[in-house]
């Protein structure tokens, strides 16, 4: 691993001591040395594309000329080194959060519209707070729930800490913001909410710091090997630590493991066992200012402050009475006596005992709420208490959640946003802003204010655009980016248009997704342009049918007319059976759009003419010949038949003009064809005339056949 630069004064790039240790990525490229060049460029998302190049044949000497040349490209995904959520789970969260976010935006617009009509802002705030709470609960459930290990029928009494799935910092951060910003009902028992939060996520702090959770895990491993558990100081330390943060079920379970509960020792240790049981009962009867018990369900709940205060004073009186009891003198076991009295001091709120029992300032902070200041004193008072606890129990390593907690307690919205962005990424910021603005007018003004230095957009819109950009950079998430772009009133629609135009049109599935997005957001002009682009792309790459289909869907008459003109040019030069068969399907697809360029319906009639001519065999099928003549005359009379096809039609019908038995064309029909031939001769003098792919003598041959047929027709009519 490369070492740090000791002095950054002489370096080209000054080194900041606050930068984390560099992360080393080991690349497996599989190329044999030597490697002559290395190229690094950005790929999609947070990936780097690293290209390895071997020496070319001109660079290598004669000895190495027979070895492999070329190179290899490797993609490296950059990360902070502590990814707790994999890419698949991130995409699951991204897709799952779309529905709650979109529903909240829709309800916000509806509530705002109703509030403007009724002019009752109070009802608006109440209803909006309820919607935000529901939104927060949905997002919270999306981030996962701890899954306990399968339990056995007979529970092991020495199992102190149950094994559960490791929680994530992302969920811990979201629950923390939900407690302070979204769930207004919990503000009456905010300290108890923090107690539950620490119980769920204290294990996360164990990664960088000693915690009560890690202490109890270590104690649980040693319980199997301890004979007289009450003689070990770690046993009493674990109990006092669990009691300090309100994990009452663990405290009672550990106390019941005391040796005095064993059957063979009840007679000799009766007083000692009575003291242990008395403390266990006091712990289990601890008053709690909360609506209901948590999963660590011990204590007595009280919903109102007067009832709680009455029970609190009574409970503290029982503790003080037990602390002054004469039974302590009869307890011969020193560790038990000292350990139990320390537990009483913790419940009485002794600061020294609480400081000793906890491992970091967050745990000490929670213990103050439980035993010293059980009532909420406002965020300002809570922040001051946190500062004092940090002085008493500082952390050696700052955890990523601590900055967020201090930002919330300090009522600093900008710090909260910065911590969310730095530690948890754009997803967290884009969705947590709704919580920040739910209960604070100051935060709402700060985040919704249009700022000149941001291009006239607000901080809220900026973070949504950043998150939408992250979604747009991945092929599996770009289709949900429009949800967030359309919520940005200033620049969202413009960026959405750019996003849709950047999607590849050669794949029908991708194109259909883009068109569906255009339909949902009524982007008719963009939808039309996408279909035009797809049509042009397919036409240029040889997929004529697909090209015509998308141009028809876009109703692009200009380009369809050009395509029809190209068909005329092609068919006019060669109207053979093979060319007609090649273009017949496309001509059918063009349909009525081709008529605006002179009409291609004559080709269908020409097809009928060719079928009739094929039935004519050596002048024997007179009925088929007459039908062919009728088709020829209809084609020549039809004004939609282009002039360039006249000679080809008459040349293909030479068999009819030279019919052996009798002339098939009468005088008027023959004169019609001669007039057409004369017009064609004059038209050939124009520079823009398109010559057909016929023999040079085709014109004279047709003229001779018509003259012969005219003479025969005149003689027959006489």
UniProtKB/TrEMBL annotation:
<keyword id="KW-0811">Translocation</keyword>
<dbReference type="GO" id="GO:0031965">
    <property type="term" value="C:nuclear membrane"/>
</dbReference>
<dbReference type="GO" id="GO:0006406">
    <property type="term" value="P:mRNA export from nucleus"/>
</dbReference>
<keyword id="KW-0539">Nucleus</keyword>
<dbReference type="GO" id="GO:0006606">
    <property type="term" value="P:protein import into nucleus"/>
</dbReference>
<dbReference type="Pfam" id="PF07575">
    <property type="entry name" value="Nucleopor_Nup85"/>
</dbReference>
<keyword id="KW-0906">Nuclear pore complex</keyword>
<keyword id="KW-0653">Protein transport</keyword>
<dbReference type="GO" id="GO:0017056">
    <property type="term" value="F:structural constituent of nuclear pore"/>
</dbReference>
<keyword id="KW-0509">mRNA transport</keyword>
<keyword id="KW-0813">Transport</keyword>
<keyword id="KW-0472">Membrane</keyword>
<dbReference type="InterPro" id="IPR011502">
    <property type="entry name" value="Nucleoporin_Nup85"/>
</dbReference>
<dbReference type="GO" id="GO:0031080">
    <property type="term" value="C:nuclear pore outer ring"/>
</dbReference>
<comment type="subunit">
    <text>Component of the nuclear pore complex (NPC).</text>
</comment>
<comment type="similarity">
    <text>Belongs to the nucleoporin Nup85 family.</text>
</comment>
<dbReference type="GO" id="GO:0045893">
    <property type="term" value="P:positive regulation of DNA-templated transcription"/>
</dbReference>
<protein>
    <recommendedName>
        <fullName>Nuclear pore complex protein Nup85</fullName>
    </recommendedName>
</protein>
<comment type="function">
    <text>Functions as a component of the nuclear pore complex (NPC).</text>
</comment>
